[in-house]
């Protein structure tokens, strides 16, 4: 992969930090020495994995693509990193992203935008853009992203790779720098379904260090479960979310319908309706911004963040200077709106109403999942836009998240499956299922592979 990185990295810019190759050699040498008798049992021995730069890596700079954390080197590993290293996986670098995972194109990165490997004039999606491009361009076979409202599935779709947002609570968030804690999940990205399932095997599981981690029985083998279903071919009940097809650009709609036809030749399909797309977006962004404004309060230059000269400055002045210099425009906007939403006079009008809507949406889906095993839609309603195009139209960019945010609001697992190309640009199909139904999503993906 280092050969590929040498060839393409300058053009694509997937990474913020690349592990020096000597470090990798030393690491693997040590692995062999310390595991003499069991390296063949390590699930990821020597496999290079790219990690989104909001996942803490001990001794490796972790920036969240923000000036605020430009020189931050975490003193500990996220649980997912521990798990990957316990299986012999090799962290080959930290990938570019939207600053603090706020965005859909990887353009809000404080350092540079990442480019779509299929067309360098287009965005790769986001916020886990660098993880997706690393896989799509051959810089890494596996990657981790994080998904609060689509940030794994959106770039997976725009770059033509597989991306899975697991059930909320299945993968530990310990060591993930928080954006909106009630929706954040770490998940795997890969070039094929088996790899995706294998990486999920390594990172899933209960972790007492994450209070929302779900103590389910250990030992689900997602590769096993996937192939059991794949060979048995059980018939599923598939719901087609009508509004999400109708709301998509024509080439996307057509490609997604073609994929649905393939599925429906084997499974039982019918239309379902989700008639409130605007409310879905509104409640997602209200909740995300409210939680972000609270989570990002810790970047004050004392606990975390850039260090400034404090001479003769009051706390307020110092706090303001650190945050003015450290945060980019999109992050500042969301903190401001989030604080407003949570303020005494407006809390009930915005935040509490958004929570109520979230509850109703969850109840709606509890009903849907009584009659359906899985629901499908295009992952993104649009093709990858041109670099810069979205910057001029923030509302349009928020609205494009409507298909993906649903899964985060209700805590369900969701996958993006690459299905087709239009004018050389990839298109993805999204499938959402009941909590802890990851095997069903992998099965559907495998059928379309
Ligand atoms: N585009 C969405 C947002 O900006 C999703 C981001 C994410 O999943 N991290 O909030």
From TrEMBL:
Active-site residue list: 52 (charge relay system), 127 (charge relay system), 151 (acyl-ester intermediate)
EC primary class: ligase
Keyword annotations: ATP-binding, Ligase, Nucleotide-binding, Protein biosynthesis
Reaction equation(s) it catalyzes: L-glutamyl-tRNA(Gln) + L-glutamine + ATP + H2O = L-glutaminyl-tRNA(Gln) + L-glutamate + ADP + phosphate + H(+)
The keyword Nucleotide-binding belongs to this UniProt entry's keyword annotation: yes
InterPro entries (UniProt xref): Amidase, Amidase_CS, Amidase_dom, AS_sf, GatA
Known EC number: 6.3.5.7
Keyword Nucleotide-binding found: yes
Molecular function GO labels: ATP binding; glutaminyl-tRNA synthase (glutamine-hydrolyzing) activity
One BP annotation, GO: translation
Assigned protein family: Belongs to the amidase family. GatA subfamily.
Function as written in the Swiss-Prot or TrEMBL entry: Allows the formation of correctly charged Gln-tRNA(Gln) through the transamidation of misacylated Glu-tRNA(Gln) in organisms which lack glutaminyl-tRNA synthetase. The reaction takes place in the presence of glutamine and ATP through an activated gamma-phospho-Glu-tRNA(Gln).
Protein name per Swiss-Prot or TrEMBL: Glutamyl-tRNA(Gln) amidotransferase subunit A
Phylogenetic placement of the source organism: Archaea, Thermoproteota, Thermoprotei, Desulfurococcales, Desulfurococcaceae
């Amino acid at each position: 992969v280092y050969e590929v990185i040498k060839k393409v990295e300058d053009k694509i810019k997937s990474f913020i930090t690349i592990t020096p190759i000597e470090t990798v050699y030393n690491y693997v040498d040590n692995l062999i020495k310390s595991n003499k008798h069991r390296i063949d049992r390590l699930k990821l021995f020597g496999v290079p994995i790219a990690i989104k730069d909001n996942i803490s890596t001990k001794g490796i700079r972790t920036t969240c693509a923000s000036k605020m954390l430009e020189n931050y080197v975490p003193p500990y590993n996220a649980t997912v990193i521990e798990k990957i290293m316990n299986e012999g996986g090799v962290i080959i670098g930290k990938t570019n992203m939207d600053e603090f995972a706020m965005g859909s194109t990887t353009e809000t990165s404080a350092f540079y935008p990442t480019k779509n490997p299929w067309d360098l004039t287009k965005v790769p999606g986001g916020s886990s853009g660098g993880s997706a491009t690393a896989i799509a361009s051959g810089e890494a076979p596996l990657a981790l992203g994080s998904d609060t409202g689509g940030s794994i599935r959106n770039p997976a779709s725009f770059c033509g790779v597989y991306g899975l947002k697991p059930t909320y609570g299945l993968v530990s968030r310990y060591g993930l720098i928080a954006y909106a804690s009630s929706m954040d999940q770490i998940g795997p990205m890969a070039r094929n379904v088996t790899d995706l399932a294998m990486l999920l095997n390594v990172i899933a599981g209960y972790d007492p260090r994450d209070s929302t981690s779900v103590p389910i029985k250990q030992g689900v083998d997602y590769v096993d479960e996937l192939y059991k279903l794949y060979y048995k071919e059980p018939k599923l009940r598939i719901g087609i979310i009508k509004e999400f097809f109708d709301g998509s650009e024509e080439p996307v709609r057509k490609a997604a319908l073609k994929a649905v036809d393939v599925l429906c030749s084997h499974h039982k399909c019918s239309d379902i309706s989700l008639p409130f797309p605007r409310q879905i977006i509104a409640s997602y962004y209200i909740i995300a911004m409210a939680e972000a404004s609270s989570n990002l309060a810790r970047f004050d230059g004392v606990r975390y963040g850039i260090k400034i000269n404090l001479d003769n400055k009051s706390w307020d002045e110092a706090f303001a200077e650190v945050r003015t210099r450290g945060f980019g425009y999109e992050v500042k906007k969301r903190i401001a709106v989030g604080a407003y939403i949570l303020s005494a006079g407006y809390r009930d009008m915005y935040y509490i109403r958004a929570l109520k809507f979230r509850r109703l949406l969850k109840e709606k889906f509890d009903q849907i999942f009584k009659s359906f095993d899985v629901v499908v839609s295009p992952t993104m309603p649009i093709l990858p836009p041109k670099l810069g195009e979205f910057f001029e139209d923030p509302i349009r960019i928020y609205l494009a998240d409507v298909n993906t945010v649903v899964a985060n609001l209700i805590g369900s697992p969701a996958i993006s499956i690459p299905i087709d190309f239009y004018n050389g640009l990839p298109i993805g199909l999204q499938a959402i299922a009941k909590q802890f139904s990851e095997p069903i999503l992998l099965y559907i993906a495998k059928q379309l592979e």
